[in-house]
What does this fold into?
Amino acid sequence: ETGVTQTPRHLVMGMTNKKSLKCEQHLGHNAMYWYKQSAKKPLELMFVYSLEERVENNSVPSRFSPECPNSSHLFLHLHTLQPEDSALYLCASSRNRGQETQYFGPGTRLLVL
Amino acid sequence: GNSVTQMEGPVTLSEEAFLTINCTYTATGYPSLFWYVQYPGEGLQLLLKATKADDKGSNKGFEATYRKETTSFHLEKGSVQVSDSAVYFCALSDRGDKLIFGTGTRLQVFP
It folds into this structure.
């Protein structure tokens, strides 16, 4: 499934930098998600948006700030990250919330120095 | 709470061998169950799913049956190929937004 794209694919940043991750879905879906994938840990759901409104925030630190300007685009703004935030960040979308199948993008591999 | 448990990997097989990756779940209600696959350097791709008890999901030669009595959704393939080498994730979706994933099982297939 190539309907969800993410940029950049790789990112290296210092702890004082500000950067943004971008996700775009071409599937006409109404719900979008950010996940964090760390080594040897289950995928962690970070944020859920439905019809551009944030509906869930799983106790994510404020140094991660999501933005959903429309139903096709989702951003994750990063500032003053820590080395333990290094991970693969995955975006996903689904037709609607609930038990719908989620389709994932290829992810952004983030390294915080 | 809801959870998914997968067998630890890596699973190492020769080409054309039979594959089973075990997955059991704990959930209230009637979740949907999924298998996702992650090839090296890529994101997760949906492999198959089942939405109710006794449903069998199948795709690309892989199968999994939703067993409510044993709360399991084991992944099977009769003859694996080198190209099947990847990490496989079992997941469940309850009536909320969350997909709850297992920790993943790495499969390595050698010629």
